[in-house]
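FAQ: What does a ligand-bound record look like?

Like this one, built around zinc ion:
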Amino acid sequence: MPRTAITGLRREAGGSPHTLYLEGPTILGWDLDLEVSATWDGRGGLALPAFTDPHVHLRDPGQPHKETLRSGLAAAAAGGYGTVVSMPNTLPATDQPEAVLSLRVRADALGLCRLIPAAALTLGQEGRVLSDASLLAEAGAALLTDDGRTNEDGGLLRYGLQAAKAAGLLVAVHAEDASLRRGGVMHEGQVSERLGLPGNPAAAETARIARDLEICALTGARLHLQHLSAARSVELVRAAKRAGLPVTCEVTPHHLTLTDTSLLQLDAVYKVAPPLRTEADRQALLAGLRDGTIDCLASDHAPHSPAEKEQDLLAAPFGIANLELVFPLLYSELVLKGAASLEQLTGWLTSGPRKVLGLPECTLEAGQPADLVVMDLASERPVDPERLRTQAKLGPWNGRQLRGWPALTLYQGRVVHG
Ligand SMILES: [Zn+2]
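The answer part, i.e. the structure of the complex:
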């Protein structure tokens, strides 16, 4: 195994520089003074374990005009991620063990980032027949979910949770009541009324979360609520956790940094499901993250082609692509503005999601995987869509000046970004 080293790394912001030694895909240790075959310059950046994302859409197989495994995993590497969980709303839906295995083999061959595919909870994500939880678990599925769709049949979700529990898998839900959401394209409130656009009330999410928490209690099975958007959702989860339910939840960077007033620009880059809500909701999500009610960050990276997002708000598809921007965006908007500490932000991107997914915690100590990111906290530049590795070039932050860009990402001891 080749021995390599990265010089000029800080182990904490403002600390002194150190050298990290690697052997193949494993960390050997710090400041060892060994012979190495290659050296990289960390340029004084902050070394962190590579991030884990429990929720990305890679659109592969089936929608290469939006994203491919290659472009999506390259975007993950550029964002500082070492492990991502892909959603099964592919074409066809990832509902068979062979499909899970195929994604894992193809991602391994690319060597950009670890992919743990989520599998569909129901065949074709049609909400009618459960997929085979035990075979999907054996194939290495991260979890079961029909994300991209909602789970309208509560009874089926109950049996799905029971089957997942028996197979040792958790179930993740996109909690929205389709009948309450109806044709809503944005948060239902003053802004939607002013614009005359169909609204999606917070109750679509909270009513569904209330139901799903009852089903969670009924089954005792692990439930993960995806992308919370409303203040009341945080309250419901806080009470459920206090009552001891085995529930976890996530929040996205866009729900933490944007509100429905962005829709006044009538630009579909802000169209996302669940929708961007009010400042009070945004503040409640932040508070929930800080007090541990919300377990982790999830990008919900949802790429669409520029032509699709250039359509008007009624026609354009839902989704924001953001994998490469999560850290600089939240470092700029939360840490530098005093809403969160650097330690909190890194925890929400590393130990938080790994705990949710049941993965071992990663550190930068000897014997750990050499999956790491070096953050240049001083680097400041505007978001340049041409520099992004994702195919989804149209996003809410294009041109925005952000600070704290990933300078170097290593996956299994090899440089995959920088
Ligand atoms: Zn979703």
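Follow-up question: can I read anything off the structure? Yes, for example: The longest strand covers residues 372-382.
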